[in-house]
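Handout, section 4.2: multi-component inputs.
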Amino acid sequence: MSEKPIRVLVAKPGLDGHDRGAKVIARALRDAGMEVIYTGLRQTPEQIAAAAIQEDVDVVAMSILSGAHNHLFPKVVKLLKDQNADDILIIGGGVIPEDDIPGLKEAGIAEIFTPGTSTTEVIEYIENSVKKSS
Amino acid sequence: MELAERLLKGDKRACARLISLVENEDKEAVDILKKLYKHTGNAHIIGITGPPGGGKSTLTDKLAKMLRKEGKKIGIIAVDPTSPFTGGSILGDRVRMSDLTTDPGVFIRSMGTRGHLGGLSKGTQSAIKVLDIYGADYIFVETVGVGQSEVDIVKTADTVVMVMVPGLGDDIQAIKAGVMEIGDIFVVNKSDLEGADRTALEIEMMLDFKKHNGWRPPVIKASATEKTGIDNIIEKIKNHKNHMVKTGQFHIRREENIKLEILNLVKEKLMTMIAKKSNDSNEIDSLYKDVLEKRLDPYTARDKIIDLVKK
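Output:
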């Protein structure tokens, strides 16, 4: 058991109460051998950044369905950057229009996964990205 | 700045990174802990244990909030099970502690058991040291939901709070050996539910049969969500430590725990040495075979393995 598991914070920023997607992802990542820290609903960007730092995660995965992604996702990126934690990989998912994706990537979200993405795709993306950076 | 210095200054990021390193048994982390070990021993370590779903996380959240009002610095380690099949885990204790996340005086860390039995993870004791050096006045260690024999926490904490709930089982559960024997304080949580009085009474009756070393564990009815009984629990936690210090038991308990910890470290090191030996040559593997085919017995094989490692 000496191989270090990938640690992922799965968070739900914003006010929508739909966490089925986040839970499915959490479960899939767990089954892929990762340590998933689940924070629950309605987290502020400040809470997400603070939890990511205390848990020393490799990845922050956020899910949002309310439409506030353009505001909330970049804010988490900024908060982590302010605390010199910009080495953490940040990914997002949920109902996000195609047109918004370039802007979010510009703001520092490494990848956006929209409905229809298979969990395998997400797992592979995380495994490849984290391996590359460590 | 070096990790060690940053930790001494109470830097959260350094604290988080060091916990990861000790959890992954990194050599650098062990060197840092060796150097900073003399800075440990100041925190009051409180174990929060009890069956799954008993409200351990919610209660920890409320206890921490109350101590924050006194300006105390709090560390929380929350352990959840790791899947023995995939090595993965979902650590969900933070869900109940959302408000504490952004409090600068609180540091919460979730840990997976990573194959360790006994209610804690192998890295828990080292993580406690890191939080102690970081400057926490109180460190709460929340175990996985326990059954009847996960008693590691008693070898780790100064004060063990056993969180029970009404209606879990008949009175026979209360006389079983194991977890029921390790509580310094008993909390009947969710006491707004029916049966709380009876559960409290059953615990009291169990305690009647036990010999007490000057401290009879109090049984407190509480409701973490309704925020009742919380101040009483804090008071008893403090009383317990005062009592232990006054009677010298605090010192004795820490000494016993240190002894156990060191022996465990020796055991782990020996296991690694044996594993290495068996990787390097097939001498040990051939002993297994000898026993299987009755050319040798397990006891002689043990002695031979010890001789091999000593070389």
